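Quick one, tokens below:
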């Protein structure tokens, strides 16, 4: 996530203070602060709707798309906090006269607040099924439009034609246009690159799909991902997957997709050769650096997919020594192990290490450091796998001298929570502990 983009968002939210400050001398400052919170929420939501469009240039300003998804989530949470405080803190001011729609705007604002609150909570409560969340998430734009209506017609100490009114209105229009584009116009507009499914293979729990372009096709770098949609059979909804093949001259693409949910299960069952597909992208900055510094690649389970593209690309580029740790649980189910061993034989700088947890073997920062001769400072580490494993390895390697900026990973999750599951688990544990403590106290003999 780029600091530049975060600064732009912060400045966009703070800019209205320039116009609100002079109003404080003649108006109730508490009510004025409440109105500022409402304005800030609209600005954040307008920006958030725009981020959802995946418009060209967003990655340049805000960072890779995986980080934009995380930013999108937290901006939604921040907007809800601002709206909640705006509702709690009385924003009414004496001496203001609203128009004919002021009363309706007040009621619509209440509906917008509670509708957005429910939908944002549905987004961060990750146990709600994906297809239900996806359907409900589309309604956010409708409640945002209602919030904009509330702003346009509610009683306030400035008019919509004032600089402050025009400023906030611009973000309202940005959000509404972005929503209309995503929900109505974009599905009808041609997008992405047309492909035909060339081959389909089932490798253990993975479905390997090779696509041939109908025309030019997209150009990608090893480690990037793209959105795949297949025409027909209930597979037309876009889903992001890592590109597991290195770039080819004919621009054919390869995806290696793990059966992890409803969509991927349906894709494994129904995808056939000859079907038409659309691929949008590529996205992501999970790409190899130039230079001869040592590299460590860590792929856990399906996290091996971007490193397949990395390994294949070594045939046509020079790099420093590379150590690839392939972390698995079942030695009999290791897709692409033979392919990676063959590439390692062809490319002298690549060493493949299978780490099988069922054999009691664990990948630790200590082992990585030892394999690099005791020094990790000059290495680049690339990781794709479970979050807990990533955090443990990064923390340990940084303590051993690795520069944090050289630990590369993608937060490749369409939905992430805000710690509600952990909070619920902690509250549950505390409740169980309290019950057991009371039971123990009752069973102890009196002295």
């Amino acid at each position: 996530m780029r600091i530049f983009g975060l600064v732009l968002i912060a400045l966009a939210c703070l800019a209205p203070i320039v116009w609100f400050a002079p109003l404080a001398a003649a108006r109730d400052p508490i009510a004025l602060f409440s109105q500022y919170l409402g304005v800030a929420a609209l600005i954040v939501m307008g920006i958030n709707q725009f981020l959802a469009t995946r418009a060209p240039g967003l990655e340049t300003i805000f960072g890779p798309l995986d980080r934009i998804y995380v930013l999108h989530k937290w901006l939604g949470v921040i907007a809800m906090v601002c709206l909640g405080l705006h509702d709690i803190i009385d924003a009414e001011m004496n001496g203001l006269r609203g128009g004919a729609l002021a009363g309706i705007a007040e009621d619509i604002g209440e509906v917008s607040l509670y509708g957005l609150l429910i939908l944002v909570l549905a987004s961060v409560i990750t146990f709600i099924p994906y297809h239900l969340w996806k359907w409900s998430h589309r309604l956010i734009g409708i409640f945002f439009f209602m919030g904009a209506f509330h702003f346009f017609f509610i009683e306030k100490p400035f008019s919509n034609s004032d600089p402050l009114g025009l400023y906030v209105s611009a973000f309202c229009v940005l959000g509404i246009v972005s929503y209309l584009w995503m929900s109505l116009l974009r599905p009808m507009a041609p997008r992405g690159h047309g492909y035909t499914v060339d081959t389909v293979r089932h490798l253990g729990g993975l479905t390997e799909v090779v696509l041939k372009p109908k025309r030019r096709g997209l150009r990608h770098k090893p480690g990037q991902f793209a959105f795949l949609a297949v025409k027909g059979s209930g597979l037309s909804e876009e889903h992001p997957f890592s590109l597991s093949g290195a770039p080819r001259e004919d621009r054919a693409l390869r995806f290696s997709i793990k059966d992890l949910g409803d969509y991927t299960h349906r894709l494994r069952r129904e995808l056939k050769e000859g079907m038409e597909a659309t691929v949008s992208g590529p996205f992501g900055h999970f790409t190899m650096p130039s230079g001869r510094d040592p590299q460590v690649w860590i792929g856990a389970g399906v996290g091996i997919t971007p490193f397949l593209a990395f390994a294949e690309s070594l045939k046509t580029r020079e790099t420093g020594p590379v150590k690839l740790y392939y972390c698995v649980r079942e030695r009999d189910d290791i897709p692409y192990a033979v392919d990676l061993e063959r590439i390692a034989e062809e490319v002298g700088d690549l060493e493949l290490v299978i780490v099988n947890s069922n054999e009691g073997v664990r990948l630790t920062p200590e082992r990585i450091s030892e394999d690099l001769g005791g020094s990790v400072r000059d290495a680049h580490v690339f990781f794709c796998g479970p979050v807990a494993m990533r955090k443990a390895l990064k923390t340990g390697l940084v303590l051993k001298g690795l520069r944090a900026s050289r630990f590369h990973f993608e937060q490749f999750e369409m939905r992430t929570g805000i710690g509600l599951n952990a909070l619920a688990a902690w509250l549950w544990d505390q409740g169980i502990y309290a019950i057991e403590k009371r039971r123990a106290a009752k069973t102890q003999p009196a002295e």
